[in-house]
């Protein structure tokens, strides 16, 4: 009896230890090294589209001709929009060729920023803010609701290729926490939008997802009907009149 | 309170209050007057009382412009330094060694390890001394509690994710992190979480990676980019997920890749062939010279007992700085394979039979006496030292033959003017050149260290490089002007666009490859190159930019000693051929009844045709003089004993001369060197570059015409050029994996 209890306890302890240790928290969608897959290989051809070639020229014109490499971030962003929200290694090589640097210098930048997705994402990439204010206001529940509704894991694409869910650092909407961002890659770099949906609830995010699935464009900004932008719910309670200027600013009186 | 802490406290108190010699007391607080009256007195009258400090590692400072000197104070000691030096360099001059990981004086400054933090007066927080320029009157404090605490804190962070696997790490015992954590780290850590782990990268057959040990100093990334000139490595990811890698699986295809092993301060990049073979404290170091190319890189052979375990570079600013090529570093396993260890005679059945030295020498002497003197031919190999070449020449001359030469020197060997076969600008002098014209040479495979200098010049001053020769790979920007003598003629006649670059250059350098020596129209090619040199004002009293890049370690010394054959087709009529380590000499035209003696250390190409084998010592086993391509004589020293019954080359020839009845008059190395002093005194000026006295303009006019055939490649495979490297397994792996790409 005692022996059985002891084994049981031991198993429990082992179970507790066996749980994967907290890996270093990374918001990136892919590993720090490239693994060849059928849709992501260095020898696949990749080029900027004709309209984007003009945009490339425009972007390069912002920088002196001997500092072309400064354009690496806007060009990677453009390439990502063109390629449906993610950067295959051949796209990074194409950018390296445009700015005349070794490919590794582009890989360094692309792996540094978590906003560059180096593995496939959905047409609508949903990014849940995970920073403290949003977390306190329930961003974990928002993410759980999204993942449960779509039936995927984080950074995994739904079967129809429409949605993927990721996490992001603070995007400065703490006053309207919690919030999600929808990166819309459904219509290429021309119709690319990057909208904030604030004051969301687990129920509201599911509605937003369903609206996107139907091809609608749900109104961006706060989802709380009682609020205007980041004003308080139910209208202003303070600062109702015209603000009085501080007396010392009246320079003529001095 | 732990024992260690108690002990350290006890030590500290005895140190701080030691009444012995106030001069040797180094205060550990920033306000010594509060602690000790003596120290306050010392502060009151500085300079006079301060003991003289010697700079770290004998660092010297050159003040080109005395007005530009500024004075800073390191721990109260005044130091004069030139403007633009960093705080760390000032501390080094003051004799204070600042701990560092990412800083390396031959690489750009990164400032990301933070180990070099020091306190600077009036600065609110510790400053990273490697990246901070020293300002006039700066008061730097390296020994204060603030600096010590900062170092201890940084060390704790570095050790947070560093595995505790020193017992199984090859860097153990020569690890910067190990040493510095002993010196500056805390005796305990507070980190209880899981350590991170990183996937190992495959960088090829030479460099082993254990990326979990990496501390992200980025020295290897900067080395690959700045010195090796291959942009393969990079820093991927961010924060705690940061790692060194190539992103796309890629081998490091640089001929200098082995140097990342030396610059890695931890065990993340170690030598693959040396892995788990030995500990560094078991090894005996012998300072010697590399012979796999004509550069003569300074190396240290680390041996254990009779075995060479590894080869490391030695600092020589004029030749190899502190790098060596992969061929130099990893050829050592060739020294253990395919060695000849007994004298052997080929029997009637075509098989070799081991015999005694007495019998072998008697057979050779008899064969030599049976033929006419002019039918004896001697060929020195590319790895021969000057002493043995001297004795070979003396011996054959005494036998009545003057057909003795060194392989690689080609036809119509011309040894009259030293300037026509030396790298006259000197290897370090190439850094000052602003335009290079490479004629029939691929320095990347012929002399990797010379190529590194050209790369350095291109990177530092945007020097232009023009190249005439077959399509080849370069690791710097270059213009491929053409493939053959046609282009050369165009440049000489001023019809080529590259002419204007040559004319406008301040210090133009022309480098001619020794592969040209093998061409029949070599004199014509050289006269055209000299014409170009004359036009471009390449040879001036203050600058000599006319260079020949030799291929083999023996070449320069053999030409200095006058190993020039009497006739160019002596091989066709030879009856006795004496190969002294010569494996690449073309024996196809040799008559079938010729008697071939092979004296050497490896069973390589020369052995196939040999009738008698005389085993000799390799460069790691003998004392010998080698002259490198710039005319600097250097000496190898024996690191390990010879294998089997092998003997030094000169001793074999000395013994043979006795048996053959033409006794050479020297019995010691010293005696041979006195003989060399008569022929080529510069070979006795060790470690000194002896520039050529007369310029090539004294040459007689050449009326030959250049053929139209394009220049060839002198070195087909960088990793396998001589008997030692051809016997090496590691070099075979390298040429299979790396040369293909």
Descriptive notes:
Chain A is α/β, with parallel strands linked by helices and 254 residues long. Chain A is built from eight helices and five strands, in the order αααααβααβββαβ. Chain A has helices at residues 2-18, 50-60, 72-82, 89-99, 103-112, 132-136, 139-150, 202-213, and strands at 124-129, 163-168, 179-184, 193-198, 221-222. Chain A has a five-stranded mixed β-sheet, covered by helices on one side. In chain A, strand 3 (179-184) and strand 4 form a beta hairpin. Chain A is globular. The termini of chain A are far apart. Chain B has 741 residues and is of the alpha/beta class. Chain B folds into four domains: 27-158, Ubiquitin-like (UB roll) (Roll), CATH 3.10.20.740; 161-276, 2-Layer Sandwich (Alpha-Beta Plaits); 344-400 and 555-680, Rossmann fold (3-Layer(aba) Sandwich), CATH 3.40.50.740; 418-554 and 692-715, Dimethylsulfoxide Reductase, domain 2. Chain B has a seven-stranded mixed β-sheet. In chain B, a hairpin with a 4-residue loop joins strand 27 and strand 28. In chain B, helix 11 packs across helix 20 (669-679) and helix 14 (485-492) packs parallel to helix 16 (522-535). The model of chain B is unreliable at 1-22 and 24-48 (pLDDT under 50).
Keywords:
heterodimer, A: 254 residues, alpha/beta, 5-stranded mixed beta sheet, B: 741 residues, Ubiquitin-like (UB roll), Alpha-Beta Plaits, Rossmann fold, 4 domains, 22 helices, globular, disordered N terminus, 4Fe-4S (chain B)
Strand content of chain B: 15-25%
Task: Name the overall outline of chain B.
Answer: globular
> How helix-rich are the residues of chain B, as a percent range?
25-40%
The poorly predicted ranges of chain A are: 20-24
Strand order, biggest sheet of chain B?
14-13-26-25-24-15-16
The figure for the number of domains of chain B is: 4
Instruction: Quickly give the CATH architecture of the largest domain in chain B.
Output: 3-Layer(aba) Sandwich
Kindly report the average pLDDT value of chain B. 89
User: Count the helices of chain B. How many?
Assistant: 22
